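[step 3/7] fold_predict: job queued, chain A
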Amino acid sequence: MAAPEDPLSRRFRPVRFLAGALLLGAVFILAIAALVVFVLTGGRGLAPAQGPVPVVTVVSAFVALAAALLAAFLPGVLTRATQRRLAAAPPAKAADADGLLAVRHTALVLSLVLLEGATVLGAVAYMLEAHALALAVVVGAVLMMLLRFPTEARVRAWLNRELGRLAARRLGRPSPAA
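[step 4/7] structure written:
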């Protein structure tokens, strides 16, 4: 009898491809913003701030902060909701792993999309106002995307940890510490 296919190997490649595409898009928008500011406008920006406060840059910083917070907390919220749903069903390792991987990948893509949105807004702010804070927003969001990039080892470790938590939840015990 053949062993069942590993759910991680079946789903890992497309999600990594999508994460890479989102990351590449963020890097490209950063490169475009740098090209506009340093080459086309001589370091001034397309519409420099008229007052002491670069409004678009400040707005982009707040949006980036909100995106970073959502990207940090959204995966946990979605995972806990999925664990509650799976814990109510009869144990089935393959179905459990599939359900957990589905929520992991969905949460990852949502997190990366939020961060890429912050990157785009920060890049627009940088192109307009050429303020260092806007550039920091873009670079920070790209770095956060890099830190979230799904490697097979990270996803496998996460899946094993969450399967353990799910088993503990089914037994009515507190789940192991993170």
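[step 5/7] annotate
The first helix runs from residue 7 to 40.
DSSP finds five helices and no strands in the chain.
exit 0
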